[in-house]
Design a protein that fits this description.
single chain, Rossmann fold, Arc Repressor Mutant, subunit A, 4 domains, five-stranded parallel β-sheet, five-stranded mixed β-sheet, 20 helices, 12 strands, 44% helix, globular
Length: 449
């Protein structure tokens, strides 16, 4: 039970928002969506736990029949009516109705969204009925339910897109674990509650046991997730593997796939739409810049395609050694550590701890030069150059010298800017106090939040 309480530490605002809508004296149509395993159902059930309600998890067929059974718990007379959505909702006026995995209804009946629009307009808009439609297919929820082309456009009264928990919040799952181990966990699970709940400490022992288990969830987890969005998953999986292995430009991805003359941009566009990947440009560039690179958006997907997908045969045969992951993990955690530092800097900016407010933050690169993070204030002209090393005994003076040299190539308010520098590392040989932050410093920063 402790984990269930902790899970809602970072869902406080979302929970308050849902509860407020559920207590209103008018009709509400609330859309809750986000990727699989993110905690949508748990959040909704927490919000309605003290309210009489109908909760229905849509399946691939016979939903009219199964919904009737679920609804009869609060409206027994519904058992005797014709199987028809419009008739059902006449009996359910002024109640709370949750339909989970609404995309399954859409797959079963392509007219269902129009039917629900008619129900809202003709029966429910002047009642106190509360409907929550929940879905894990981001593309289908965005296109069929939320877009301006949807029959339900303009009918929803609230929409909530659930994101992974922040790094600072995963401490709630592991209250006695230090920051180094938390970053290792974050590299595997991101802030996705389903995966965080599965982990036991020590992490590497648990991962070894999980991979050796004949019924390990890791073997087919990403197939399960990807099939929610795409029917033909093979090309998408190859692209995700390419990016997970460090191929981030369009050319590198095509070369990895051996598709030099094929157009993979539609696949990349679909992967961005469904939030498996994201496209980044240097922080000082316009988003249309041709310097764009592609990165996997969540850590679990990146981990799976870097370590599980290429080794599925060995894992299935029971001969894969988790030490193969452990030996490479420090290299993999470099980008994970960058994201942790980015989150901390944003928090510090909002708390007025940094010397300036951040209005933009991201990576910068040009030809052979790259800076891990550059933070800007476009109004004041402040700019911070940040180098991040997932290493021990870092030579701070050497890193700072190189960072200042690279900063000269960043074309942004060059004649009128105030420069700041920072280095983050696991540990340093010798700190330059003004610039250096190790894991202990980072832990203190997070604990102050």
């Amino acid at each position: 039970m402790i984990i269930v309480i902790i899970m809602f530490v970072d869902r406080v605002e979302e929970l308050k928002s849902l509860q407020k809508k559920l207590k209103s004296d008018k009709f509400e149509l609330i859309i809750v969506y986000g990727r699989r395993r993110i905690g949508k159902t748990r959040l909704i059930l927490e919000a309605i736990k003290n309210i009489e309600h109908v909760y229905y998890l849509a399946v691939e067929g016979n939903n009219l029949k199964y919904f009737k059974e679920a609804a009869s718990n609060i409206a027994p007379e519904i058992r005797y009516v014709q199987e028809d959505w419009e008739i059902y909702f006449r009996f359910l006026k002024d109640n709370v109705i949750v339909i989970d995995e609404f995309p399954n209804l859409i797959k079963e009946n392509r007219h269902i969204v129009s039917i629900f629009q008619r129900i809202v307009d003709n029966q429910l808009k002047n009642t106190k009925t509360k409907i929550i439609l929940c879905g894990s297919s981001i593309s289908m929820m965005s296109e069929k339910v939320l877009s301006y082309r949807s029959p339900l456009y303009g009918r929803r009264t609230a929409s909530l897109k659930l994101q992974p928990l922040k790094f600072k919040d995963i401490k709630g799952f592991f209250p006695n674990v230090g920051i180094k181990d938390l970053i290792e966990i974050y590299g595997f699970a991101d802030g996705i509650p389903y995966y965080l709940e599965k982990i036991e400490m020590p992490f590497w022992k648990w991962l070894r046991n999980e991979l050796e288990s004949p019924d390990s969830f890791l073997k087919d987890e990403m197939d399960f997730v990807i099939k929610y969005e795409f029917e033909d998953v093979s090309t998408y999986k190859k692209i995700l593997e390419a990016i997970a292995m460090g191929n981030t430009t369009l050319k590198e991805i095509k070369d990895y796939l051996g598709m030099k003359h094929s157009d993979i941009t539609p696949y990349l566009r679909n992967l961005m739409l469904t939030e498996f990947i994201k496209r980044e440009v240097p922080i000082t560039e316009n988003w249309r810049s041709k310097k764009g690179r592609y990165f996997i958006k969540d850590n679990f997907t990146a981990f799976w395609f870097r370590y599980i997908f290429p080794n599925l045969s060995a894992i299935e045969e029971g001969i894969f050694d988790v030490d193969r992951i452990r030996k490479d993990y420090s290299l993999y955690l470099g980008r994970i550590f960058e994201n942790v530092v980015k989150e901390v800097l944003i928090i510090q900016s909002k708390s007025n701890i940094l010397p300036f407010k951040i209005t933009k933050i991201g990576k910068w690169w040009h030809k052979d030069k790259e800076i891990d993070l550059v933070a800007l204030n476009e109004n004041s002209g402040d700019i911070m150059f940040v180098e991040i090393k997932w290493k021990d005994n870092v030579n701070a003076e050497k890193i700072l010298h190189k960072l200042k040299e690279k900063a000269k190539y960043v074309r942004w308010k060059n004649n009128d800017r105030k420069e700041h520098f920072a280095i983050f590392a696991k540990s340093f040989r010798k700190k330059i106090n003004e610039y250096c932050f190790d894991l202990k410093d980072l832990e203190r920063m997070i604990n102050k939040v």
